[in-house]
Fold this protein.
Amino acid sequence: MISPILFWFVAFITVIPALALMFARKPVHIAMAVVLVMVGLAVSYVALKAPFLGVVQIVVYTGAVMMLFLFVLMLVGVDKRESLKETITGQRWIALALALGVGALLITVVSRLSFSVSEEPSEGTPTEVAYWLFGDYVLVVEVLGFLLITSAVGALALTHVPRLFPKRTQAEIQSARVAAGADPVNKAFPGVYARHNALDAPALDPDGNPIEDSVSRVLKVRHQAIDGSEFKDDNKARRRELGAKEDEA
Amino acid sequence: MSPVNFVYLASVLFAIGAATVLLRRNAIIAFMGVELMLNAANLTLVAFARMIGEINGQIMAFFVMVVAAAEVVVGLAIIIAVFRARQSISLDEPSELRG
Amino acid sequence: MLSVTWLLIAVPLASFFVLMLAGRRADAWGHWLGVAASSATAIIGMGAFFEMLGRDAESRSESVHLFTWLSGGDLHVDAGLLVDQLSLTFVMLIAVVGTLIHVYSVAYMETDPNRRMFFAYLNLFIAAMMLLVLADSFLLLFVGWEGVGLASYLLIGFWNHKPEYATAANKAFVVNRIGDVGLIIAMGLMFAHFGSVSFADVLGGVDGASTAALTAIGLMLLVAATGKSAQFPLQSWLGDAMAGPTPVSALIHAATMVTAGVYLIVRAGAIYEAADDARVVVAIVGAITLILGAIIGSAKDDIKKALAASTMSQIGYMMLAAGLGPIGYVFAIFHLVTHGFFKAGMFLGAGSVMHGMSDQTDMRRYGALRTAMVTTWITFGLGWLAILGVPPFSGFWSKDKIIEAAFVGEGWQPWVFGFTALIGAGMTAFYMSRLFFMTFHGKARWTDEQHPHESPLMMTVPMMILAAGSAFLGLFLAVGNRFQHWLEPVTGAHGEQEPVLAVPVLTTLTLLLVAAGVALAYWMYWRNDVPTVAPPPSLMALAARNDMFQDSVNRAVFQIPGTHLTRTLVYADAALVDGAVNKQATGVAAFGEASRRFQSGKVRSYAMLMLLGFLVLASIIVVGG
């Protein structure tokens, strides 16, 4: 069924990096080792006629989960060197013994199995998986959706940092501006005449004199600003032309 | 080779993951051990699915993956929150529940 | 009249309550109320007696049902009275002698400020004793039994401002209690075997019960009787009970209460007839006590204590008679009645002597009172002759019949019991004569300030009546065997059996021994001078002076081991029971302290424990299959 070379290859690239988990010192090395383990597992999934699952393994685990791990490692401090010295007495040896025990127990249980390997297994193609996922297990899928939303919101809630300073309001910005000497009121707009409302003509104050600040400084520097006097009386002339009486103009 | 060898492989990976959780002081690395244990379980599920010939094992493994992903999200968020409070991610330091 | 016999109990009881509750206001007339209550009881008793005399022999017994007392489950006890010949005999004795002593006490207790309470207690005693003899079930009898024990305690300790008197009352009560346990166990056995404790059921159902059960019941009843009647081995309280006023000694510890044990044995006669071993034990106890009392009485210098020893011995005679079976029941009761008269008379005489000698009780300080107190001398002398068994006085008729009955039977019993009774008669003669001569004859050994004088009429008249009874009652009852015929329906008839020694031989032997005793006492205590200080005793005399060391035995065998046992139990309770509970608590706490060490607060330790737990469980499942 499965080629022995493939199996032993997979075995090597999963077990050896897994041992790095126990013995390596830099966390990033460990993360990379785990990526390798995940890839190895993806290979074995494909070999076991679960191609969809193999791809999902790569995408989810190596692509998302391990990246998450790396991000957090970077947040926490990526250059830390882990000390391998054990602080709790006896922890190391008991832990190793227990791990060996667990492994031995599992292998014993499995070795006692009597089974027959099916010759015609179902292929784990996306279609096939989809058929089952959204057929018999659709309720589980929905629940998993809830779960994912919950975990995302939970992560947000857990990592929420409260504001260090209160937010600067617009009133504060405005006060600071005025305190620095700015005009509290807007400058006047350029003049709007009957036959000319471009930016280059100044506005007139109530006495009929032009306001200097209403024209952009840039235009003045470029000598593109005009005097607005030629348009001053245009209103009266134009209205006369249009037939209004003298005193009404 | 029969797929049952993958189950043996999964047992070994499970043991290594368990040892990691017990041995490493860094919280993130211990967490990675947990992930390794979950993956070992997944491998077992898929191998048995292959042996039995049904696809249900793969579906179950898919669900496990989803749940593991959600769990990683929340777990890492917790680690970050603890880090913000204590400036340390050593598993030995928080012992306020000592009785 | 027979149907209102409950009045015999109610009247004195009501008087008791009135006297007790009336308080100091009743001090002026309280004693007369007590006398009136006792007299009323005597009149009612005599009325009942004459009514019963008018009936035929077969129909004399009457049951009066009072009320249903206990009714629960299997136990059903009715309170009722059984008025038959035996109970009425006792009723007459108690009422007549009791009334005479009530009258005597008016004068004797004249100077005592608590005289009213004295009469209250006397009435309580009369009520309780009436209940005892009239009850129709063992349980109701027990109520009366306890009542007389209480009255005895109250009366012995009447002058309890003296600690030794209070102690004497306690001692009497405690020893009585030991006997009571026997009665309780007997009632329990009766209930178990007969399903009832009434006389009719128990005594009527004797045929259906096993001998072992009947023997057990008989022995337990004997224990009760020995306690109440001061028989061996529970006789130690009677001597100390003389701490009470002399009328108390006369009424309770001579005539009535101490005879309640004999009443019990005779009433339960059917049980003893069916259980031969128990019956023999009764006779043996009586025989032992008979001799014991005589020995003790020969060495006592206190007149009341000597009379108490005499009582013990005479009741031994009654027990011996009761233990002989149907032959002896009648004579036991006969002797009980005559003894009631002459012993009460002698006690009242002793009280009169003490009254005249300023409450001196040491006989070594008496002597030659014959001329100073003539009436007392005559009445006491008649009682003395009666107890000796000199014909034709009362004691001859009753005691000689007991000696004859003791010689009836087969095997070793008639010889042992008979000779014991015979020798006892001789010893009785000796020590009673010793008492009489030391008190009334010989040379005067009075101390200087004593001026003996005769007692007032209110004291001497009861003494005279009792002396008359001592003299003639026995003859009256023996004529034509009328007392025997009177009691026969209750005690059962006995066949005519001959004693192993012929009757005339026995009578002669008895009289010879009596004469020898009197002669010896005459020689020692009349002709020769009596030393005013007791001479150094021989071993036997030393033992007799110390009540045959019964108190020491009690202390060594029961009291001290009992105290040790109690202390050990208390200590064991504290150490083991309390200790176990406390150690459990501290153990749990220590276990908790040890378990604390697992809670290190470290995540990895917890993880290790979880993995360990998983491994263990999984292994169990895998290995266990």
Summary: Chain C touches chain A at residues 600, 602, 604-605, 608, 611-612, 614-615, 618-619, 622 (CB under 8 Å). The beta strands of chain C are 62-72, 75-83.
